[in-house]
Amino acid sequence: MTSQPFISSAFTRTILSHAQQSGLCRDQLLERAGICLSWLDGQGLHVPAHLVEQLWSECERQGAGATFGCELVNGMATTSLQGLNILLDSAATLRASLACFTEYLPRVTNYVQAHLEEVDGQARLHLRGVYQAPHFFGLDAATLSLVRNIARRLGRAPGEVFVGVTLTPEQAAGEWLRSVGIKVSRGPHPCLLMALDTLDEPLLGANPFLHQSMLRHWQVEAAQHVRSDSLELARHWLTAGDQPIERIAERLGYRQPSNFIRAFRKHFGITPKQFRLGL
């Protein structure tokens, strides 16, 4: 996981699209939030999380109602999860699906952490802000998306799947949850409660071949992110000290310095030596 808190550009585009549909000015929101339009082009790009938090706040200041985050669920594009939804849908059981969700969510955003806990005969899916408490618009969108998608995968009504849902005091998702028969309580972060045996229920869209194919894709993506982070660390070491390039390569786990040099050049466009001389 990178140290810089981020949210995917795809999800940021979804926020802006919903804001426009709600009558808010996209360009004004971008300017006031400090988000460059170029950051939203293409897939796999990241937007600094504090700027997306500012975007939520600007939506609120410009008149978005308290249920803005709840309504966002209706317009959520599948691209917001960068294909993660396909991996989750094709798993054999809910347990396998949620295991993938908690493991690979940091590739979509490292701003919110999902943790599955099994205690007292219940399965509890916690959503916590990693760095600070996220804006309640985002928490509402995340909570309702999970409730609806988990129920859809199981082919059951939300009220039959969830024992209860805990929301923060600011969240507005309680009205919808109660309307579908789910008990709502207050807590420091959102938490979805299910009977423990629900985790082992089969999913309607289970597809072993598709799931394994998507799983390999996400494992490769995760490995690429780890390599990217290690190369950023290499750049820091090249800047901060006089360690030999061979030593830096060894510390990062490269058996051959030539492999490290090749990876560095592919990532930054120059060799480690050129980078150090350029400084």
Strand count, sense and barrel status of the largest sheet are:
5 strands, mixed
**CATH fold-level label of the largest domain:** H-NOX domain
**Sheet with the most strands: spatial strand order:** 3-4-7-5-6
Low-confidence stretches: none
Q: Give the overall form.
A: globular
Measured distance between first and last alpha carbons: 27 Å
Gyration radius, to the nearest Å?
21 Å
For the secondary structure, the number of strands is 7
What's the CATH first level of the largest domain? Alpha Beta
| Helix content range | 40-55%
Number of domains: 2
Mean pLDDT: 87
Instruction: Please give the count of helices.
Output: 13
SSE run? EHHEHHHHEEHHEHEEHHHH
- The CATH architecture category of the largest domain equals Alpha-Beta Complex
Structural class: alpha+beta
How would you name the oligomeric state of the polypeptide chains in this document? single chain
Offer a few descriptive terms.
single chain; 279 residues; alpha+beta; H-NOX domain; Arc Repressor Mutant, subunit A; 5-stranded mixed β-sheet; two-stranded antiparallel sheet; 13 helices; AraC family transcriptional regulator; HTH_AraC; DNA-binding
What's the arrangement of secondary structure elements?
Blueprint: E1 6-8, H1 9-21, H2 26-33, E2 46-48, H3 49-61, H4 68-72, H5 84-89, H6 94-108, E3 112-119, E4 122-129, H7 136-154, H8 158-161, E5 162-167, H9 174-179, E6 183-186, E7 191-195, H10 208-240, H11 245-251, H12 257-268, H13 272-278
Parallel strand pairs: 5-6
Antiparallel strand pairs: 1-2, 3-4, 4-7, 5-7
